[in-house]
């Protein structure tokens, strides 16, 4: 192996010095071999039909000996692709990604893993509106985009202003686009039916309001259907809160102060349900002896807390895999949109029991 930074041509003993920032460049190889940069580029990119075997061997040998690595930018230009995929995460108006939600953080990690295996690079953009997102995607020259948390009325705007392949995760829309999501209504329906089967009649739905993403509204639809089938009035059964551990304290206070005298709740995220277990415990209220809870997501921590959390499982790893596969299909020329709906599973653990007298 040649000493780093020094390479000598047998003909003329020309010294080689590294290019800028110590990286070996095509110009460096050209100087070592005594050929043009165009010749080196042709050899390294397989356009060598007009290059002699001797010159080709010399160029490839020098590239290997100098440990030449083509830059990502150079590779993308040669194939007219950047190899960059943007994950557009619709967040709060201040641009906060909100990745303190473990579901979203896990989904992001799985997406990055699958994209990396496909030779792609992930770029994350916290978005607040469709027009800004469309402008940024055009300026970044990305190969494709994955969208998370997009409201239905923004999907059409994004499709109209973009010509890159797009896949929407958890998007409830009638627009003909590729999407992957969960049957959220079914999952919430099963969770509510489980509480009804345990004997509960006063069941709260704990989560964000009706203006939030379609996922929450779909879960409320499933909840409402189960109560309606049981001939229970759905009015005033919704307790509004954000989906964070920190918001559990206020949510617990609302549940206990409600005139509905709740004995159980369907909670739209595990992290919030776990926060409720802790908030109740501080008030001397035991789950499930005094209050039953069903979460949503089946995060790893759901089986670690005491009591372990009954929850609706969604396969986050599978959702990420399908999203990336749908995008790769479009990049490979399969343009017909596909909608994939994953089935939820109710995981029964220790946070549900029969109702006692309502807490006062």
Describe what is shown at a glance.
The protein is of the alpha/beta class. It has twelve helices and twelve strands. It has helices spanning 26-33, 37-44, 53-65, 72-79, 102-117, 130-140, 152-161, 184-197, 214-229, 248-257, 270-282, 316-331, and strands at residues 84-90, 121-127, 144-148, 166-169, 178-182, 203-207, 238-240, 264-267, 292-297, 310-313, 339-342, 345-347.
What would you say this structure looks like, in words?
With about 350 residues, the chain is an alpha/beta fold. It folds into three domains: about 50 residues, Orthogonal Bundle (434 Repressor (Amino-terminal Domain)); about 120 residues, 3-Layer(aba) Sandwich (Rossmann fold); about 130 residues, 3-Layer(aba) Sandwich (Rossmann fold), CATH 3.40.50.2300. It contains twelve helices and twelve strands. The chain has a six-stranded parallel beta sheet with strand order 2-1-3-4-5-11, sandwiched between helices. It has a six-stranded mixed beta sheet with strand order 7-6-8-9-10-12, with helices on both faces. The termini are far apart.
Helices and strands in order:
Layout: H1 26-33, H2 37-44, H3 53-65, H4 72-79, E1 84-90, H5 102-117, E2 121-127, H6 130-140, E3 144-148, H7 152-161, E4 166-169, E5 178-182, H8 184-197, E6 203-207, H9 214-229, E7 238-240, H10 248-257, E8 264-267, H11 270-282, E9 292-297, E10 310-313, H12 316-331, E11 339-342, E12 345-347
Helix pairs in contact: 1-2, 1-3, 5-12, 6-7, 8-9, 10-11
């Amino acid at each position: 192996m040649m000493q780093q930074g020094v390479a000598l041509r047998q003909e003329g003993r020309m010294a080689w010095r590294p290019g800028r920032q110590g990286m070996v460049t095509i110009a460096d190889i050209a100087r070592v071999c005594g050929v043009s940069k165009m010749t080196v580029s042709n050899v390294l990119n397989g356009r060598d039909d007009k290059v002699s075997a001797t010159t080709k061997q010399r160029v490839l040998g020098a590239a290997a000996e100098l440990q030449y690595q083509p830059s990502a930018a150079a590779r993308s230009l040669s194939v007219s692709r950047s190899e960059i995929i943007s994950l557009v995460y619709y967040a709060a108006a201040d641009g906060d990604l909100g990745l303190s939600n473990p579901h979203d953080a896990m989904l992001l990690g799985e997406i990055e893993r699958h994209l990396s295996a496909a030779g792609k690079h992930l770029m994350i953009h916290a978005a607040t509106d469709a027009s800004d997102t469309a402008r940024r995607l055009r300026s970044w020259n990305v190969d494709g985009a994955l969208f998370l948390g997009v409201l239905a009325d923004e999907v059409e705007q994004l499709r109209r202003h973009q010509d890159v392949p797009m896949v929407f995760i958890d998007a409830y829309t009638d627009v003909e686009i590729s999407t992957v999501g969960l049957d959220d209504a079914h999952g919430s329906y099963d969770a509510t039916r489980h509480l009804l089967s345990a004997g509960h009649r006063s069941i709260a739905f704990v989560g964000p309001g009706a203006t939030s993403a379609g996922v929450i509204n779909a879960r409320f639809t499933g909840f409402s259907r189960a109560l309606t089938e049981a001939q229970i009035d759905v009015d005033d059964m919704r307790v509004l809160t954000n989906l964070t551990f920190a918001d559990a304290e206020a949510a617990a206070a609302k549940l206990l102060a409600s005139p509905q005298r709740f004995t159980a709740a369907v909670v739209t995220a595990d992290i919030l349900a776990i926060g409720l277990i802790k908030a109740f415990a501080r008030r001397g209220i035991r789950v499930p002896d005094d209050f039953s809870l069903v979460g949503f997501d089946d995060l790893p921590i759901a089986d670690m807390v005491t009591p372990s959390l009954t929850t609706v499982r969604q396969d986050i790893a599978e959702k990420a895999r399908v999203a990336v596969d749908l995008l790769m299909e479009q990049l490979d020329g399969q343009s017909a949109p596909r909608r994939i709906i994953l089935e939820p599973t109710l995981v029964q653990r220790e946070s549900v029991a029969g109702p006692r007298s309502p807490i006062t």
